[in-house]
């Protein structure tokens, strides 16, 4: 429903028919759709590909759309209006729908769910509030396709970190932006995040590189170490932020102590369960054999 847009298709070394499909769209809609790829058709990862697109963009605002996800028709119209009305906001985002029903199977319909925001909607949030909420696990970073950001704000933080080729490349970017700029959290949901077994997240989970729970995993460990270095370089001294980050880093810095604490916690949970079972047995016996 919004006409003033350009679509930049960045080919990250695809080996299927994606290149030909993208080229056909660029030929059909010259001046509206453009095709780009890396030198020698390399696969350079998500961050480098997003930065490539950002450098080629001509607009004031930038949004991202991964190849397997979709926008709802009103996405750009709605979010452009928000940024136009909120001149202090560097970015706007809303909840993302985790989309299982794309398969067309009836049994997948109930699996669709909305990505939690964890913060009041239709609110301007000042830095570094969102980072503290993310590290407390009280709020969740935006979905990549849920955002619309000012180009100058993206350039100010130097875009995406290209050493993050896949997992956490989005969180690295959002932590950088939310640390430096005001963000508007909106009530709308304008994108669908397709859930399928060949996604980056699912492949990383199956290979043990990432764990969706809070258990330590290589991908999150790399992200947290990067965050520590970044806060130091940016000379961030916020005590609450540092306290939360050190708490998140503790399992990675002290893995033996962490495993010991997990074991102790499990033993305590088992003891509680056994105690409840014993009390239940005693109550049943007292009822069956009253004095």
How are the SSEs placed, and which strands pair?
Blueprint (H helix, E strand, L loop, with lengths): L6 E5 L6 H11 L4 E5 L8 H11 L4 E2 L7 E2 L3 H11 L5 E3 L3 E3 L13 E2 L8 E3 L3 H8 L10 E4 H6 L12 H12 L2 E3 L5 E4 L5 H7 L11 H16 L5 H15 L1 H34 L3
Helix pairs in contact: 4-9, 8-9, 9-10
Describe this structure in words.
This protein has 291 residues and is of the alpha/beta class. The protein folds into three domains: 1-43, no CATH class; 58-253, Alpha-Beta Complex (Spore Coat Polysaccharide Biosynthesis Protein SpsA, Chain A); 257-291. The chain has ten helices and eleven strands. Helix 1 links the parallel strand 1 and strand 2. The longest helix has 34 residues, at 255-288. The mean pLDDT is 94.
Proportion in β-strands: 5-15%
* Strand order, sheet with most strands: 3-9-5-10-8
The CATH architecture of the largest domain is Alpha-Beta Complex
Fraction of residues in helix: 40-55%
- Poorly predicted runs of 5 or more residues: none
Summarize the structure.
This protein has 291 residues and is of the alpha/beta class. The chain is built from ten helices and eleven strands.
What structural keywords apply?
single chain, about 290 residues, alpha/beta, Spore Coat Polysaccharide Biosynthesis Protein SpsA, Chain A, 3 domains, four-stranded mixed sheet, about 45% helix, globular
């Amino acid at each position: 429903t919004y006409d003033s847009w350009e679509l930049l298709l960045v080919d990250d070394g695809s080996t299927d028919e994606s290149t030909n499909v993208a080229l056909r769209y660029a030929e059909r809609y010259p001046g509206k759709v453009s095709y780009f790829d890396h030198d020698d058709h390399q696969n350079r990862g998500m961050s480098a590909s997003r930065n490539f697109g950002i450098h080629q963009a001509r607009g004031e605002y930038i949004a991202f759309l991964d190849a397997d996800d979709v926008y709802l028709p009103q996405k750009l119209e709605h979010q452009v209006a928000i940024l136009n009305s909120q001149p202090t906001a560097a970015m706007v985002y809303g909840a993302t729908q985790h989309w299982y029903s794309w398969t067309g199977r009836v049994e997948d319909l109930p699996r669709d769910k909305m990505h939690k925001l964890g913060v009041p909607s239709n609110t301007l949030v000042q830095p570094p509030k969102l980072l503290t909420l993310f590290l407390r696990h009280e709020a969740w970073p935006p979905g990549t396709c849920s955002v619309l950001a000012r180009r100058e704000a993206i350039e100010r933080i130097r875009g995406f970190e290209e050493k993050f080729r896949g997992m956490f490349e989005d969180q690295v970017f959002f932590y950088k932006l939310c640390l430096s700029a005001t963000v508007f959290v909106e009530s709308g949901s304008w994108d669908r995040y397709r859930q399928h077994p060949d996604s980056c997240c699912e492949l990383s989970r199956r290979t043990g590189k990432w764990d969706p729970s809070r258990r330590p995993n290589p991908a999150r460990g790399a992200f947290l170490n990067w965050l520590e270095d970044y806060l130091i370089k940016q000379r961030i001294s916020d005590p609450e932020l540092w306290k939360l980050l050190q708490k998140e880093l503790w399992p990675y810095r002290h893995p033996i102590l962490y495993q010991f604490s997990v074991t102790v916690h499990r033993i305590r949970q088992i003891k509680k369960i056994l105690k409840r079972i014993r009390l239940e047995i005693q109550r049943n016996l007292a009822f069956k054999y009253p004095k």
